[in-house]
Amino acid sequence: IILMISLASAAAMAAIFQSPVAAIIFALEVIMVDLAIASMVPLLIATVTAVLTSYFVLGQAVMYPVELHEVFDPSNTLFYVGLGVVAGLLSTYFTKVSIAVEEYFGHRIPQWWKRFLLGGSLLGLLIFFFPSLYGEGYEAINQSLSGDYSALYNNSIFFGFKDNIWIVFVLFVAVLLLKAFATSLTFAAGGVGGIFAPALFLGAFLGLFYALLVNELGLGQLHPGKFAMVGMAGMISGILHAPLTGFFLIAEITGGYSLFVPLMIVSTISFATVKIFLPNSIYTYQLARRGELMTHNKDKSVLNMMNVTRMIETNFHIIRPGNTLGDLVKIISSSKRNIFPVVDEKGIFKGHILLDDIRTIMFDHELYNTAVENIMVFPDNVILPSDPMEEVAAKFQDSGKYNIVVLNEGKYLGYISRANVFITYRKKLSEISQD
């Protein structure tokens, strides 16, 4: 399933952006948790087929052509580092706002029509004041790559301030901050959209604003189009947590291969900055919160594929608190397990008895009338059905136990054994690995 999703995603990205290399890297960096040689062949076939189809239908023109009359100037390295930091911070802001808005609409407004009305109204209000927030923003991106920022004020009530550069800077900041709300309101209200276009839009406007501000303050003489381009790489890297995808995608869709070094600088710095605040991307946040995230850490991925409730063993003889040691001895003679849960008539777990703990007294007939509840113990570790498998594995490792009881609000469900965890782990590992 993961391979098929990767193939579909890579093919779609290759066809839309005509960027086969970035599409393959995106699949490996964001979706696939384990790189197997056998997976590369279908991945290559899918992307090549998709990009060739796109060439035949749409032609081979670069999506965002940029005229670069000069190569990378090493003296501007610090400015690129600064842009990377700012891109990382803006990516963090965008992700947190998007998550907060969607969670608010999802939890506080259960009726779809109310979400539609409120989200649509707020989005319409934003677009009224800032028309550049409407749609994908591809035209605005193209303009920004040539240093043109007229999309900020065209068709807006702020057109009369277009000659005041400081008002223009305020508009830049407003659009950069409000784009997160516009995107998340679209999703929350029931609209359909993606993350790539908003990330590219934000990156282009951020880079353009950054270069214009540096130039206006007299700190340097930066090429606005260049910084708009590398800004897109920074935002893709930060929002998607995919630095390789960021700089390869922008290089392919703009033809700006001569700026590979600044693309790498901004992508890397942006990714490193956003990771300080957000361990998971906008794609993986919900999965991580539910403990279902598949990552490039193979151990965590395998554990996330395992389900606690499917590993519960119930072939244990249940003892009642009122039973005696004599009753227990009779049960032991017919049991294949060495642990005996003590559960009352309501299903509440009271404790358990280990065979090793009673081995020295089980043949003492004088103690056969001893109540079970006087010799049982309550375990130090219990497992809940909602526990992630990573936590379950840690409990086995820390306690050294071979069996741990599973309880749901105090009620006995069964036990999970260390052996069963290991067997299931090996099975899942073989499913995602290729010799």
Structure description:
- Strand 3 (382-383), helix 16 (389-399) and strand 4 form a beta-alpha-beta unit.
- The chain is mainly alpha-helical and 435 residues long.
- The chain has three domains: 2-58, no CATH class; 74-296, Clc chloride channel (Orthogonal Bundle), CATH 1.10.3080.10; 302-432, CBS-domain, CATH 3.10.580.
- The radius of gyration is 30 Å and the shape is elongated.
- It contains 17 helices and five strands.
- A three-stranded mixed β-sheet has the order 3-4-5. Strands 1-2 form a two-stranded antiparallel ribbon.
- Helices cover 58% and strands 6% of the residues.
- The model has no long low-confidence stretch (mean pLDDT 88).
- The longest helix has 32 residues, at 77-108.
- It has helices at residues 2-17, 20-31, 37-58, 77-108, 112-129, 138-145, 165-188, 196-216, 224-240, 243-254, 260-277, 285-290, 298-305, 325-332, 355-358, 389-399, 418-432, and strands at residues 339-343, 349-354, 382-383, 403-408, 411-417.
In the CATH hierarchy, what is the superfamily of the largest domain? Clc chloride channel
Bin the helical content.
55-70%
CATH architecture of the largest domain: Orthogonal Bundle
CATH class of the largest domain: Mainly Alpha
In CATH terms, what is the fold-level topology of the largest domain? Clc chloride channel
Mean pLDDT: 88
Query: What is the tally of beta strands?
Result: 5
Rg for CA atoms: 30 Å
Number of domains: 3
Distance between the termini: 19 Å
Strand content: 5-15%
Helix count, DSSP H or I runs of 4 or more residues: 17
Q: Could you name the ranges where pLDDT drops below 50 across 5 or more consecutive residues? A: none
Q: Tell me, what's the shape?
A: elongated
